[in-house]
Amino acid sequence: MAAVRLKDLAQKEDRLVAGHGMCLGCGIPIIFKIILRATDDPLIVTCATGCLEVCTTIFPRTAWNVTWIHSAFENAAATAAGIEAMYRALKNKGKIPQEKKIKILAIGGDGGTYDIGFQALSGAVERGHDFVYVCYDNNVYANTGGQRSSATPLGASATTAPAGTKSPGKIQPRKDLTRIMAAHKIPYVAQASPNKWLDLYNKAKKAFEIEGSAFINVLCPCPTEWKYEESQGIKLAQLANDTCVWPLYEVEKGHFKINYKPKQKLPVTEWLKSQGRFRHLFKEENAWIIEAIQAQVDEEWEELNKLAEM
Amino acid sequence: MKKETWRELTIGTINLNAGNSITNLTGTWRSGKKPEFIEENCIQCFFCWLYCPHFAIKVEGEKVIGINYDYCTGCGLCAEECPPKEKAIIMVPEEIKLAEGR
Question: What does the pLDDT look like over A185-227, one tens digit per residue?
């Protein structure tokens, strides 16, 4: 395979264009700049309600240069499944040539994927529809004002789990959706982040090429809700990889493969102190939460390494 | 632009003008700082193009040639991720002016 150069990717037409209303320093457009370039076939995109959907389609404008359908919060995967079934039917009836390749991409944030859209997603991949689902996981309902989701990590402050004198922020650990999707035993599941752009590009390419359902969970830095200086997003994503808070791995036909192992695994405090949403954890009375987070990250990383050795 | 009323809308609120958000100039959001491109320091790595959330890096052929201030929101990711020691993009202060006609 020829080496992929950013220079060459930049020559491709933008399928998502300028003029969208996403925040300063937002990670979402960066992620989809890469993913939308990973296939040259005609593409149909459906977005669950969320930051990307709201900010790219403020009527009468749209930032999408491809066929795009809005789904409600809970049914992006069901919409994608319906589109895929329709094209299969049209091919069977001979109205579209059998060999014509059409790619279908469903997108949701962590709210629309981990929580509200999970049932539709689980059902669609269980039925084995040929589509790619990408979740941009910014750990919070960012579009509606920062409510906690099941992707919000332990100890983070969110508007519905606020840190204060009576509360240390969210008291539940986050749900590990990538592993849950792997448990569906679908052909391809991966976890990625935008700082490792080539890794993300390769995963998206693989997901588009594989027949059947594919799922990619991408960490998405959010300056508004994580509370950090806008220019630091990509550095933060790297920190998430280096502390093993967000490991990069893929599961192909049931086989786990870790794509990035930090040379030196950093303590989670490096990750926590970089963002305002964790600031309260450094108070004396909250020290136990940092310990709990470190223990959880260590355990999950060890488990992942064992799975990759199998 | 003349405001459309519901009478002019396509049935099903279908938007047939793909990519028409380019008329929305997000550059007006900039407040106080903007990136400056220094061509002689540029190593053409394209990281600024990659990490710009607002598609504001001007590319001509295989070269980055500058910044499109119509869309740049001044977040500073391009300058932060510019790899050479002598950076090819630096953030500089920008005077905030009222929009014309105000």
Answer: 999 999 999 999 999 999 999 999 999 999 999 999 999 999 9
Is the Cβ of A61 closer than 8 Å to some Cβ of chain B? yes
A2 lies in some domain? no
Which of B2, B21, B22, B94 best tests the A interface by mutation, with the highest count of A CBs <10 A?
A: B21
What are the E-state strand segments in A161-285?
188-192, 214-219, 249-252, 255-258
**Rounded (10°) angle between helices A197-209 and A28-35:** 50
Interface probe, candidates A231, A232, A236, chain B, greatest B C-beta count within 10 A: A231
Residue B79 belongs to domain spanning: 25-93
In a domain, B87, yes or no: yes
Residue of B nearest to A223 (CA): B75
Kindly state the tokens that stand for A198. 């080539």
Q: Is residue B32 a part of any domain in this protein?
A: yes
Q: How far off is chain B from A270, nearest CA to CA, in Å?
A: 19
